[in-house]
Amino acid sequence: MKVKVNRLRSVAVVFAGVALTAVLTGCQGGDDDTGSSSGGAVGSSSATPSGGAGKPAGASPSAASSTPSGSKASPSSPASAEPVADATPSAVPCADGPPTVEEVDPDEIALFRIEEIDGITDKVNLVLQHGAWGCPGKDTDGPPFVVTGEDSRWAMDQGAYVTAVTPIVESTENQRIGVQELIDWVDAHPDSGLVFRYTVGADGAIHRLEQVFTP
Question: Which phi and psi angles does 9 have, rounded to 5°?
């Protein structure tokens, strides 16, 4: 009986040892699973930064936002800049000789003399020539007004609106003057050829005459 009891005790001890080993092994396996599961969750959370959906796992925000080699240049890069159109206006053709009929300016005239009309008190005749702006010379600040053709005589109303600049008045901006003041200056400086813009009224006579400033 003593032998059987000892054998049973030995078997019980062996079973207890096996059971303890299984329990310890299971605990270690559980810890490993928990660790790997926790590590995976942390890795997943840190791999995707806020607002960075679609970025590769583990990529840092700085690495993900950096411009890869060979990517499209930024707008400030000369490679991506649109070609700038030449802002310099093309040179306007100028008359280097007597202008043709097509080149004559229809709105401007060169005034040489003023004549009174016998028997008509409300009109005077402007002795003028048509022309066009020529090419500026090396020693001048502006282009000359090049006349062409014969003298013409156009009636102007003595109540016309007239403005003048230097040399008629001491100003580079148009100043209103009377028709008689213009007549007096032109009589004292005949054939000056000052340039004026004009407007014709319903009666065919000039009702507005404005001098053009030329440097």
Answer: -65, -40
Question: Which tokens go with 165?
Answer: 């600049």
- Using alpha carbons only, give the angle 194, 156, 163 rounded to the nearest 5 degrees: 50
- Site of tokens 């000892």: 6
Quote the pLDDT of residue 120. 72
- Which residues touch 213 (CB under 8 Å, ≥6 apart)? 165, 166, 172, 173, 174
Contact status, residue 154 vs residue 131, Cβ threshold 8 Å? no
Question: pTM of the full predicted structure?
Answer: 0.55
H/E stretch holding 24: helix 2-47
Residues of the chain falling short of pLDDT 70 = 1-96, 140
Burial class (CB in 10 A: 0-12, 13-18, 19+), 85: exposed
Q: What is the DSSP string of 109-130?
A: EEEEEEEEPTT-SSEEEEEEEE
- Tokens read off for 100: 């043709």
Give me 4's structure tokens. 């059987």
Give CA–CA dist 111/152, Å, rounded.
10
**175: Cβ contacts below 8 Å, ≥ 6 apart:** 163, 164, 165, 169
